[in-house]
Amino acid sequence: MRTARFSHRFLQSPLPGFAAVICAILSLGCCIAHAATIVVTTTADGFDAAGTAAAITLAALPGPDGVVTLREAVCAANSNAGADLITFAINGTFTLAGAANEDNGGSGDLDIKQSLTIQGNGIGNTIIDGNGIERIFDVFPAAATSFTVTGLTLRNGDTRAASFKEGGAIYLHNNVITLIGSCRINNNFSGANGAIENRGTLTITNSDLSGNQTIPASGSVVGGALHNAGALTIVNSTITNNLVRGEGGGIATTTANGVTVSLVNTLIAGNTASVTGGGLGNGGGVSTTGNQGTILFHNCTISENHADNNGGGAYLVTPGGGTGNATLINATVANNTADFDNNGAGAGGGIAQNTAAVTLRNTIVASNFNSIVSVRDDLSGAMVASGSFNLIGDATGSSGLVNGINNNQVGSGASPIDAKLAPLQNNGGSSRTHALLAGSPAVNAGSNGLLPADAFDLDGDGNNGEALPVDQRGVGFARVIGGAVDLGAYEQPPVNIAPVVGALNNYTVNAGVSISFTATATDTNGDAITFSLANPPPFASITTAGAFSWRPRISQAGTTNAVRIVATDNGTPNLSGTNTFTVVVNPLSPVHFSSAAVSNANFSVIISGFTGPDYVVQASTNLINWFALSTNVSPVTPFQYTDPAKASNSFRAYRIWLQP
Question: 541, 559, 585 — which closes off a domain?
Fold first, then answer.
C-alpha cells in the first residue's frame, strides 16, 4: 500500500518528566516531505512479500500473509527513492530474528539504505529487541542522507562477536544525518565503541541511554553508551549506568579539529570506566581521548561516575600538540570517583585534564573523590586560567584557578569549600539534579554575562538569541533567580520567608459589642497571602482576605481571650506568620426596670443596664410561658419601652432577656 504524506505530527516525549520536544532540533525530522508512509501491522519478524529482502517493494506490501512486518517495511523503504516514513498500527515488542552478518536487511539487524523516519508510539509501546543477534540498526551512507527514530525503545542489541564490534544498538556510518528523539536505548552490548557508534552528524533529544555495556574480548575500547567520531548534539537527555572496559563509561568522543560536540541540559550519572581485561579505565562519565575538536557542557550534571584510573567524572585530553578543548558552563561535577579500583593509580575524581584546554565558567566541581577511601580529589591537571566564577571544593593536584582571582572560589586540602549540595535526586523537571542547600556559596555567585545563548530554544519561545532561560530541569525552572545566576546546573528557588502579620490592637468590650477590622500582612517574596485563626474563641471568624469579626456572646462575659491571626503564603514551602491580640469581655452588669407608668391604657417602662447586648422585652400572663414583645439591638441604655397591648390584658408580667 502506498500513500503520500508531506508532514507528520510533532511527538511529545514519552519519557516521564522529560520536557517538550525541542523545536529547533526536531525540525530536522518533523518537517520532511515523506515519499511514502508504510504502516507496520504485526510484531512478528520475517518477510514473505518477495523471494529476497532486496526484492521487496512498496507495491508488494502486504505479502501473502496479509500483514506488514517491520523488516518488510524497512526493505520496502530501501527500494523506494526518497525519505519514507514507517509508523506502527500495533504496539508491542518487535523481536528481531535470523542470522547475523546479512547486509540487505533480510535477517538479523535492520539495514537502512535510504533516508528514513521510523516513528514509534512511545518507549513503552514500540520496543525493538535485537534478541542478542547483532546490532539493531545499521545505517549505510551509500544513499542515506537522513535517519530519524522517535518514540522507540531499542534494547538487547549485541555486537560482541569477532565479526563486528562497533555500535551495539546503532551504527551510523559517515555522512548520515541522524535524529534520535524521545527514545530509550538500554541493555545493549558492544564489543567496541558503544551502543551507538556515530561517524556522521547525530542529534539526541529527550532520550535515555542507560544500562549499556561495551566489553571487548580483551584490551581497551571506548564509549559505554556512545562513541562519537562525528558531530554530536545531546539535549534534555540522560546517560546513566553504562559501562566500558576502557575509556568513556557514558560517552567517548574523538572528533576532528573544527567539529563541535554539545551537551545541553543533560545528566551523565552512574557510569563506569573499568580496567578489567586490560581496559584503560579513564573517564567514568566522559572521555575525549584522541579528540581534536570542541566539547561543550551547558546546564549539565556529571555525578556518581567511576573510573578505575583517571577522571571519575570526565577525562579531558587531546593528543600532544592537539587542538582538543572543553568548556563547561553552569555545570555541576560532583560525587564522582577516580581510582575506583583502589590500587593507588588514578587522579581527578571530578575532572582529569591532560593537554586539552579545559575552561570552567559558572561551574561547581566539588565533593569528588579518589579511591573508595573517599579522599577529596576534584581536579587533576591544568585548567585554563581565565576560567571565572567557579566553585572548586579542593583544587589540590590542579593549577590555573586561584581563589579570589576571576571571582573563583577555590578550596584546598587544608581549607576545602563545602558547596552544600543535596544528593542527586528528582527536583522536578527533565532529569535529576543536585539542589543547592540553604547557605550554599554557589547561590547568586555566577555571572549572567557568561550564560551561553539559548541555541536550542529550551523554553520554546522562538528566541534562540537570548541567554539560557532555564536550568537543567527545563521549562518552569528559571535560570536566573535573585538577580545573579547560581553556579552549577541547578538554580535555587527563592528562599521563602514567612509573612509578617501587622500590628493588632487589644480590646476590652461588653458582651454583645462587635469587633471588626481587616488584618494586614507583608511578604518579602511577594507571595499571595491567606488568613486564618488558630484556636479562635467560639463565633470569631476571619475571611481569607483578613476581615475579622466577632461579637462575644453573653455566655462569654467575664472571659479573657487570646486571638491568634495566621497569615500563610503560597511559596515553596508554604510558610506562616502569626500575631496575637487580647479581647477582655467584661462581666455582666445588673439590668433592671428603673420606673414604670400607665398612661391612656398603655404601660411604659424604663429599662436600665449596660450597652452591648440585644435587649429582648418578654411578657407573660402566667409567669410560665413567656413571649417576646420587642428586640432592641444593642441599644443605648437607659431606654423606654411602651406596651400598647396592656389595656387588653388584666395581668401581664415583664422581663428582660439579653442576647446573643
Answer: 585
